[in-house]
């Protein structure tokens, strides 16, 4: 069967990661979490003392940075210049830093190439903010997954509870700030592609969202693809 390239964009906490993973498993496709790449750059920049506004520093960093995903028994691991940084990129500090560095042109240009290389050969579900608009405008099926701000904050809070690092009010504040940063930046702002299928997951379970997406994909396969 023809292998497709599927994109899922949307704001933080809309459920993209869970849904993208399940959809990729169901289709036998690979799953690429592009937010992890921005988080990886933010982590390395912080480790090297490079601030999110230092375009020259970020440009130099990008030139010597090798970011990749490697499969493991616990899922994909993020490797930066040979070091496994998967468990270091989900802290509240790196989360906000990733949003800040993601507005910088040098960095987006670097990650554009990395992501397009990963998409060669298709058979992939890419999750992010600008997958359908900028990175893969020719994607076969594009989704934009949204949910109400309160629902998104609550979902993220529940996820983070394992490490109990933030209160619900703090998670909500950070999500609102990130929404603002990510959707108002000049370059590749978060927005649905003109041809994206928009799904509001506020009142839907993960299974319902995945089933809806699978139906859209099979309709597309029977039709024009
Ligand atoms: O999906 P996430 O929350 O892990 O993403 C972290 C940050 O990375 C997000 O606030 C904005 C940025 N990002 C981006 O600008 N473009 C993408 N394709 C993915 C993430």
Indicate the overall shape. globular
> How does the helix and strand content classify structurally?
alpha/beta
Counting DSSP E segments of at least 2 residues, the number of strands comes to: 8
How large is the share of residues in beta strands?
A: 15-25%
Name of the level-1 CATH class = Alpha Beta
Figure out the total of helices.
Answer: 9
Radius of gyration: 17 Å
Report the mean per-residue pLDDT as an integer.
94
Which CATH architecture would you pick?
Answer: 3-Layer(aba) Sandwich
Within the largest sheet, what's the order of strands? 2-6-1-7-8
Short note summarizing the structure:
The protein has 225 residues and is an alpha/beta fold. 50% of the residues lie in helices and 15% in strands. The chain binds 2'-deoxycytidine-5'-monophosphate.
Can you walk through the features of this model?
The chain is α/β, with parallel strands linked by helices and 225 residues long. It has a single domain (5-203), classed as Rossmann fold (3-Layer(aba) Sandwich). Helix content is 50%, strand content 15%. It contains 9 helices and 8 strands. The chain has helices at residues 16-27, 34-47, 55-64, 92-101, 105-119, 131-135, 149-160, 168-184, 206-222; strands at 5-9, 30-33, 67-70, 77-80, 83-84, 124-128, 141-146, 197-200. The strands form 2 sheets. A 5-stranded parallel β-sheet has the order 2-6-1-7-8. A 3-stranded antiparallel β-sheet has the order 3-4-5, with helices on one face. Helix 1 crosses helix 9, helix 4 (92-101) packs parallel to helix 8 (168-184) and helix 7 (149-160) packs across helix 8. The chain is globular, with a radius of gyration of 17 Å. The protein starts with a strand and ends with a helix. The model has no long low-confidence stretch (mean pLDDT 94).
């Amino acid at each position: 069967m023809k292998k497709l390239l599927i994109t899922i964009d949307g704001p933080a906490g809309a459920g993209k990661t869970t849904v993208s993973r399940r959809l990729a498993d169901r289709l036998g496709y690979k799953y690429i979490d592009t937010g992890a790449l921005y988080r990886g750059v933010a982590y390395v920049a912080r480790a090297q003392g490079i601030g999110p506004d230092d375009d020259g520093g970020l440009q130099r960093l990008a030139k010597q940075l090798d970011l990749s995903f490697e499969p493991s028994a616990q899922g994909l691991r993020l490797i930066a210049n040979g070091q496994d940084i998967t468990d270091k990129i989900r802290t509240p500090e790196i989360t906000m830093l990733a949003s800040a560095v993601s507005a910088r042109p040098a960095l987006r240009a670097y990650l554009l190439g990395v992501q397009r290389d990963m998409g060669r050969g298709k058979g992939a579900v890419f999750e992010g903010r600008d997958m359908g608009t900028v990175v893969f405008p020719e994607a076969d099926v594009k989704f934009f997954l949204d949910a109400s701000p309160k629902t998104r904050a609550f979902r993220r809070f529940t996820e983070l509870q394992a490490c109990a690092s933030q209160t619900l009010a703090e998670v909500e504040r950070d999500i609102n700030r990130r929404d603002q940063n990510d959707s108002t930046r000049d370059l590749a702002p978060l927005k649905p592609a003109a041809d994206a299928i928009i799904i509001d997951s506020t009142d839907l379970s993960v299974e319902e969202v995945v089933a809806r997406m699978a139906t859209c994909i099979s309709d597309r396969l029977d039709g024009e693809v």
